[in-house]
Structure formats: C-alpha cells, structure tokens
From TrEMBL:
GO MF, any single term: ATP binding
Name used for this protein in its record: Cyclin-dependent kinase 2 homolog
Record bears the keyword Iron: no
Oligomer and partners: May form a complex composed of at least the catalytic subunit CRK2 and a cyclin.
Keyword RNA-binding in record: no
Domain Protein kinase: 1-187
PANTHER family given in the database record: CELL DIVISION PROTEIN KINASE
Keywords: ATP-binding, Nucleotide-binding
Record-linked InterPro entries: CDK, Kinase-like_dom_sf, Prot_kinase_dom
Family matches, as SMART domains: S_TKc
Amino acid sequence: LKPGNILLDGDGRVVLCDFGLARASGEDKECIPPITREVATRWYQSPEILLGTEIQTSSCDIWAAACILCEMYRGQPLIAGQTEIQQLFLLYKRFGGSPLVVPRKDRPTDFLGDDLRYWPAAMLLPDYGKIPFARNAVESEQSWSVRLAADIPRLPPAALPMLAGAFRYDPRLRYTHARQMLESEFFDSCRGSIATALADYLRDSEAKPPPPVDDPWEDSFDSECSFFHQPN
C-alpha cells in the first residue's frame, strides 16, 4: 500500500489499485514467490521487509496503512528515508530504538505496553545486526506515542491505541486484519446507519447499496485536501 495506489471517487468511495506485486497467501509456501525489496515503496515498508524477510503477511499492509493514516494528518510522509539504511534508522528513531530480542529486566512485559520493539524473531532475519545504530542516536526518554502526538498535533488521541497495534515491530504481534483497526475507538464517529447499510451491502451482493446521505466526512474532504497541499 502507498498513497498513489489508493483512489477516491466523487462519492467518497475508496478503491485500491495496482496489484502487480501482490503475493498470494496459503499453506503451500513453495507456490508463493519470495518477497523482494521492491515490494512496497520504501517509506511504507515494515521492519521485517527492511531486514530482509522473504515472507510477507497481511501485517505488512497494516503497517503501510498506519503510515498512510499518519501522513494524512501530518501532511507529509511519516518516515521518509532516502536509502534503506536511512529508512531503518529513521524507523528506529521514530519508535524508540532497535528491536528488543529479549524483554527488559526492569519491564518484563514491555511487549504488552507502550513499547513496540519487542521482537525475539528479529535476530533470525538476514539483515538483522548488520547495521548497528548507536543507542543514543535512536532511543529517547519519551515514549513513541508522546513524540508522535507532538509531531502530529492534528492526530486524534483515539488513534494512538490503534496505531500501537499497527506499528508493533513483531509482525506476529501486529494487527493482521483491517477489521482490527476498524474496531478502534478512532472510527466511532463514522459508525451508525450508514456503516451498517454499507456492511450489509458488502456481505450480500444482492442487497441494495446504501442511499446517498449527507456525510460530515465528505463535507470536510475539500478542506482537508487544501490543508494537505498547503505550500511549505
């Protein structure tokens, strides 16, 4: 996923396009082509892709979707490295440091809290440890969520718990389905009759599409576009 592959029509419907590098998923791993570094634009790549994984799961797309959401509120990409090494450095700096392959003794349940870095299997990836970064260059005394909120003042506080599930380093702990993000409090404002009618329509191809209604999100779309394209 990247912004250039997300289309929006005049009625506010979102469509994904360009599946040229899509990968099938299934139990027969031998039938799945190995992932390459070209999959996903660098700015939206998850940590496992940057560290050389050959296995892509839906959690990679969740990471990219979270990057795009932050970009919508920030007005510019969240992590914009010019090289793969710089991308990894900026990612670590954004979220508090390199992967934690063992729990910290002072906080043995770090991986369940605000720290996103717990990822024991990271040491098994091809490029793990090849480029060590100085701890004082990537770590911060402030939590990632505090720094993210300061960097993106327009980001609603309700988005932070959802982003915590989407930005975990370990793909097994990260969200794997869009439904997990949609269940977040962040989306409460757009639930109701419209969402229910749309959900029924998506589940049943014979159901009637929801009628057009006045949508507060649609009303603010033009102003959001204007804000996003403000000159620097």
